[in-house]
Amino acid sequence: MTALLDVEGLSKNFGGLQVSAGITLALHAGERCALIGPNGAGKTTFVNLVTGVLEPCAGTIRLAGETITRLPAEARVRRGLIRSFQVARLFRSMTVREHLELAVLEREGHTHRLFASVGRVPGLADEVAGLLDGMGLTAVAGTAVGRLAYGQQRLLEIALALALKPKVLILDEPAAGVPHAESHRILDALERLPPDLAVLMIEHDMDLVFRFARRIVVLAQGRLLCSGTAREIAADPRVREVYLGSRADVQPH
Amino acid sequence: MSAATNHAATASAPAHGGRASRPQRLRDGAAAPLLAALGLAAFWLFPDDLGLMTRILTAALYVLSLDLVLGYAGIATLGQAAMFGTGAYAAGIAAVHLVADPLVLLAVGGVAGGLIALATGTLILRGRGLTLLMLTIAVAQIVQEVANKARDLTGGSDGLSGIDPGPLLGLFRFDMYGRTSYLFALAVLLAGFLVARRIVRSPFGLACRGVREDPVRVAALGGSPKRLLVAMYAVAGVFAGVAGALSAVTSGIVGLDSLGFSWSAEALVMLVLGGTGRLWGAILGTVAFMTVHHLLAATDPFHWMLFIGLFLMGTVLFLPGGLASLADRFTRGDRP
Amino acid sequence: METLFGIAVDGVAYGMILFIISVGLSVTLGLMRVVNLAHGAFAMVAGYVASFAAQGLGLPYAAALAGAVLLTVVATLPLERLLYRRIYGQANELAQVLLTIGLTFVIVAGINYLFGPTLKRIPLPEPLQGTLALGPKAIPTHRAFVIAVGVATILALWWLLERTDFGIRLRAAVDDPDMAAALGIRTERLYAATFALGTGLAALGGVLGAELLPLEPYYAIRYIVLFLAVVAVGGAGSIAGSAAAALALGVVDTAGKYLIPNFGEFFFYATLILILFRWPHGFFRGRAA
Lengths: 253, 336, 289
Hints:
The complex is a heterotrimer. Chain B is an all-alpha fold. Chain B contains 15 helices and no strands. Chain C has helices at residues 2-32, 39-56, 61-82, 93-115, 141-163, 165-175, 177-182, 187-208, 219-222, 224-234, 239-259, 264-278, 283-288; strands at residues 131-134, 137-140. The mean pLDDT of chain C is 82. At the B-C interface, helix 1, helix 6, helix 12 and helix 14 of B face helix 4, helix 10 and helix 12 of C.
């Protein structure tokens, strides 16, 4: 079976500094994969390269067989490669509902329509209601996002990604900044993602990583260190080594 | 620190018809009839000031165009007069040489304003911040310089005169008291207001508001920020062009100041006075600005500058939402 | 030949004035990221103060010049504290434009109230009148003086920014404000000092250039577009860029007035658009980066 997302030999230099060195990674439909690594391992650079924020120096990226290495970010989104942001990066003055409407309208290519009313686009209201319900955001649908609790902003971030009907979803630290007591809500939401979706999660919270991911990929100094199940990764001495000092307890639950 | 702009942004969340809060729905539904009623009332109450009031209505349409650009797409510009003046000259030249029908002249102005905005917008809208501000200024200065030099067509610094539009719809002559002009301008402003409202509530308008807040995020949703910005710039150019044509038709003259830096800056001041990101704020701001200007500048232009200067500083420091935010506070208690 | 020489001298002198004023704007824009449209108003205030000191109080030119610069800096420092500090930062262009336009209007109205709408002069002292023989050519002494002060300003700024502790901290803060703060550089004080430097330069240029940019209340509005253009082309925070842009602009504008009086401004703005389109961060920044 061909991979949905197929990254081969992805490299990036900033000046003399190599921040991504020949990373190869394949992601199949329905996969739940986590990308971990100590600070400065190149996780964010990798996400930016794959999503088109940065241009790689070498390597190829294929999405469902199509080469997208040189496509601009928005073209990749339209093909189903969706990311969420590390820090909730939302439109502060717009309501929760407006966010989801915008995402659905963008997906359907409606945003060139000058004289249609958002309220009267067929099927839009129902789809948005479904998304709101799915994340438990119905009660705050009319609230400006700037006034939303942080955990709810993170849920909206996931809902936005889902509204775009992704094939591949890259979650950049979906639980960052969420109080530990509330992170189960994020996990709940993640567990209800469509089963055939390929998910790559970047996360520091090992608890979340071990619960969510079937496969874990470890990045260190811009290189792929190893990859395996939670148990294999936890037992790998190299992983302990790169984490030693920065994040010592790598334990599956 | 960034309180001013943040407030200006958060204070502007026009909701959609179907599910807006009750007071807002009332206010939205009432805005257009209220505008018409007030306009007609002014027509009866101040029959001697129709000339000034016509200028106010024309300016309101122009400021509305700036609101589309700045309030709904977040493009900070000091060159909106380029579109207004281009529309005014296009309509004026067409009136002198080609056609007399006022509605056709408005269309000519709108097309001209839209085209110049599309052409220059494509060129300059990849800039940001100071660069973009400078580019908008430079574009307006170039257009003004071209108008100044094309003396045969535009009359240069003497201005373009001899614009004598035919009767409106073939029925209503433009009378010397300015009655037709005033009512025509009122009707055009109303139409412009309704069309603009339609646009800001469209999927396109929603996407533009997204770009205003965070272009990168819009790209991550699959949208193309640059294309949205250029499109909104061009749409607003049509509005500004129609406003310019309206000014040419109702006043009979077009001067170089219609392309000037001050006219661009004044539009910004009027918009901020009323409140960005709400269409009726643009109209409110224009009426307030032009009225006070008329009263104060009649005695001494420097009194006017002192007033408007203090006002601008006060707005930035204490009332970032403009006059409209005061009205908001009044009509609903839950301002963010 | 005579014309060309005249153009060169006038153009360079005019360019130096533009440089002295604009580089002040450039420095504040580079560090504090504030689009200060009131910069021209500060230059104008200094010009009026010098004019009053020379004509009203009968002070000598040098004293009037020094007094005007000092007074303008002292008078504008509270503004930095009360107004500008609230609008520093990149995300604030609109607030910056509005606040500083407002401030400009207030200053214009105030100047008109105090000094009236008529043109004001700063009488030149005996040694600056007349001409200076330069081999077979003669150039107006005032122009030579302006050019000399301009060159001195370039050298002094270079020394200040490259060789002094203040300059090192300033450049560090321009490059990376957060890092500078983390290193214990007190940005508040640095901002105030830089603001004073910028205002001082505006004041110096305003007084020296009174012969070329005549003093009247609308001065503040009339010339700000020019100063902004120099900064935009030169690149915010770049001394060499400001100098080159100002000199080029001064010479082109002067030549345009002499040779093709009809299209000078047109060419100027067309060039501006081309340069900014190609190098959005300014000609010199864009190429260095």
